[in-house]
Amino acid sequence: MRKTFIGLFIGLCSTFGMAQSSNLGNWLLYFGNKKIDNRWNWHHEVQYRNYDAIGDLEQLLLRTGMGYNLSENNNNLLLGYGFIKSQNYTPESDGKITVNEHRIYQQFITRQSFGRVKVQHRYRFEQRWVEDQDFKMRFRYFLAFNIPLNKPDMTEKAFYLSSYNEIFINHENTVFDRNRLYGGIGYKLNNYFRFELGYMNQFLNHSNRDQLNMATFFSF
Fold first, then answer.
1. Could you give the 3-state DSSP secondary structure of residue 16?
2. Euclidean distance between the first and the last CA atom of the chain, given in angstroms as a whole number
3. What pTM was computed for the model?
4. How far apart are CA 107 and CA 130, in angstroms?
């Protein structure tokens, strides 16, 4: 199983080398969670999104928030803030424009287990200020599954399959914003770190994009 994980990593890195001449993007993701006590937690994350392998910035996302557990490990309410810097290509040009966005968001996460299958639901409501002028609101629903492979549960040194789907709904104009479908393989090193390598497709109104995702999760 470990050799399979290493082989997948090498394969994805090889794909990065070819990504400059394709539409395949690369997202580098860090998610952190600090347990303050049995009820409160501090969430923080950094997402570095590229149009190509690396160095062609699409979006830098910084997000943080304070969460409160309604019940231990299963139901969490969170209030947070996000800053997003986007660099968008202008139509029929190689030039880019930079767009800054501030977000306030509220979310609720609930988790269940069905045998070996771990299920997570996340409901998120966002208030978005784009370039300090354009105000938007958006609802997001995220459904994720983790399935351990070499162990009966998500314990230390467990390999697992990971998949999720997330839909984005706007409050006005074009209601459907986008949908993200993801699948990958993960490795839980210990109670602090786990890592994932995966492939995601984003369905937009008039197009779609593919991304390779490399994610690190840190709990402390």
1. helix
2. 27
3. 0.88
4. 20
Q: Are 47 and 61 in contact (CB under 8 A)?
A: yes
Strands 96-114 and 117-130 come out as: antiparallel
Q: Where are the beta strands (DSSP E) in the chain?
A: 24-35, 40-50, 57-71, 75-89, 96-114, 117-130, 134-148, 158-170, 176-188, 193-203, 208-219
- pLDDT confidence of residue 17: 44
HSE-CB of 207 using CA atoms within 13 angstroms = 3
Nearest Cα residue to 146 out of 176, 191, 114, 170: 114
Please check whether the domain covering 2-219 is classified as CATH 2.40.160: yes
What is the Cα–Cα distance from 80 to 43, expressed in whole angstroms? 8
In order of 60, 67, 80, 123, 207, the CA distances from 105 in angstroms are 17, 12, 5, 10, 27
Q: How far apart are CA 108 and CA 125, in angstroms?
A: 9
Give residue-wise pLDDT tens across range 69-89.
998 778 999 999 999 999 988
Question: pLDDT tens digits, residue range 156-183?
Answer: 999 999 999 999 999 988 899 999 999 9
